[in-house]
Amino acid sequence: MKHLGLLAAFVLCSAVIGLVACARHVPQTTTEGQVFLVLKSGEAVKLALASVYLLDETQALNQAKKALAATADTLRTARADVDRDAEAIRRDRAESLRTRSDQRDKLLEEIEAMKQRGDFGPAYIVKTRQVAKIEDELADDDVGDATITKLRERQRDAYLRYPDEFVAALADAGDHMLFTRTDADGGFKLSFPDDGKRKALLIVAERQLEKVEQYVWFVWIDKMASDAGKLLFANHNDLRRGSAENVVNLSTYLATVPPPK
């Protein structure tokens, strides 16, 4: 029995050592990148202390869904069919004016009958005031244009504001695999298991000018082309640009309507 116990312990220890050895031999891959901006002058500004998150595919898609949910109201306003709404407003306004016109005509008939009877009491005064009010409404040539203008302004504001709102919502990182920050040259390096599964990088950088400007990159690593072994993150593939590497393409979310005038 003693020998059997020792044998079992030996087998167990061998299995544990084997598992540890296998775990230690999982292949690793390293991703290096640099984050910078190219100004109109041609000067490259390296973005130090940018937050760099590594996400697996599920985490990346969940991050995108979270940002979409947080900005749904603004996107809905940006996508609004203002021309259709304007037509409905004008139609309702015209119907309202026809109804009021009929009301005025009926009141005028009643007033005329009261005149014939010599009835100039309180009811007569009330009806004449009602007619005057309706005629003021009918004289107003605003067929809903003020309301329609406000709708167009609201849509335009949402259309222009949406990318920044989405970027801000996306920058609030949720679940992720790894995290690091860029160095003084805007560089970073991440090592992680090469398990063959898709990975994404979410990079959030800020630049202090008159106000704090925020820049976000959210890309699939397998779609990025390296330059001398480094992935480059700059103006050309910023999230707002809608490049092919992006996990989400903001331009497709706004593609249902043309840019408001």
Question: What does this molecule look like?
Answer:
With 261 residues, this protein is an alpha+beta fold. It has two domains: 147 residues, Immunoglobulins (Immunoglobulin-like); 74 residues. Helices cover 49% and strands 20% of the residues. It has seven helices and eight strands, in the order αβββαααααβββββα. The strands form two sheets. Strands 1, 2, 5 and 8 form a four-stranded mixed sheet that branches. The protein has a four-stranded antiparallel sheet with strand order 4-3-6-7. Helix 3 packs antiparallel against helix 6, helix 4 runs antiparallel to helix 5 and helix 4 runs antiparallel to helix 6. The radius of gyration is 34 Å and the shape is rod-shaped. The model has no long low-confidence stretch (mean pLDDT 84).
User: Which runs of at least 5 residues are low in confidence (pLDDT < 50)?
Assistant: none
What separation lies between the terminal Cα atoms?
89 Å
Provide the residue-averaged pLDDT.
84
Beta-strand residue percentage: 15-25%
The total strand number stands at 8
> What structural class is derived from the secondary structure elements?
alpha+beta
Which term fits the overall shape? rod-shaped
CATH topology call of the largest domain: Immunoglobulin-like
One letter per element, helices H and strands E, the order comes to: HEEEHHHHHEEEEEH
Instruction: Please name the fourth-level CATH homologous superfamily of the largest domain.
Output: Immunoglobulins
- Percent of residues in helices comes to 40-55%
* CATH level-two architecture of the largest domain: Sandwich
In CATH's first tier, which class of the largest domain applies? Mainly Beta
Major sheet:
4 strands, mixed
What's the number of helices?
7
Total number of distinct structural domains: 2
Radius of gyration: 34 Å
